[in-house]
Amino acid sequence: MAAPRVAKDGAWTFDIFADLFADPAVCLISYCLPCVQYGMNAERVHGPAESCPSHGLKYCLYGCVCLCGLVGGPTRKAVRHAYKLPIQPPLGDETATGIVNPDCLTHTIPCTGCFALCQESNELRTRNVTTPLDPRPFDWAPVPPTATVAPVQAEMKKDAPPATPMTTTTA
């Protein structure tokens, strides 16, 4: 029997590719029912504000159009930030400017999404997560544009003469 793994901050306990079959049940659920696995992971990470089926449904719907990274990325990022874990697989630097988020990309690339779900689930189980890591509920609505406020006009002086209307002359 293999020795139990010890979770350390700053390093993943399970590699995204090498430790895929560390827990065969999690591997099977992550590959065959990724929506269910994501729902269970998200409920552990974000708390009971939304139910497991609700999270799973979002992952499924976004997955139908190959955008499950928009749902899975924030959850993976919350796990990484809570334990100071590196980006894995190394897809880029999250401090770099641009629109590519490596956590979202990990869930979007075919097959690595299932691997990421498996890795996240094993990590959460090993670290014995009992309280939400990132309890803020997601607001999936688009961010409303900021309102532009017109500049305040200075009050007219009371001593100023009234404006005279323009007169037109006809010839």
Structure characterization notes:
The protein is built from six helices and no strands. The chain has helices at residues 24-32, 34-46, 52-64, 69-83, 102-108, 112-126. The model has no long low-confidence stretch (mean pLDDT 80). It is mostly helical. It has a domain at 24-92 and 100-126. The longest helix has 15 residues, at 69-83.
Instruction: Enumerate how many helices there are, as a single number.
Output: 6
Helix content: 40-55%
The pLDDT mean sits at 80
Distance between the termini: 109 Å
Instruction: Kindly name the structural category.
Output: mainly alpha
Number of strands: 0
The run of helices and strands is: HHHHHH
Share of residues in strands: under 5%
What oligomeric state do the depicted chains represent? single chain
Shape from CA axes? Answer: elongated
What are the low-pLDDT stretches, counting only 5+ consecutive residues below 50?
none
Largest sheet: none
**How many whole angstroms does the radius of gyration measure?**
26 Å
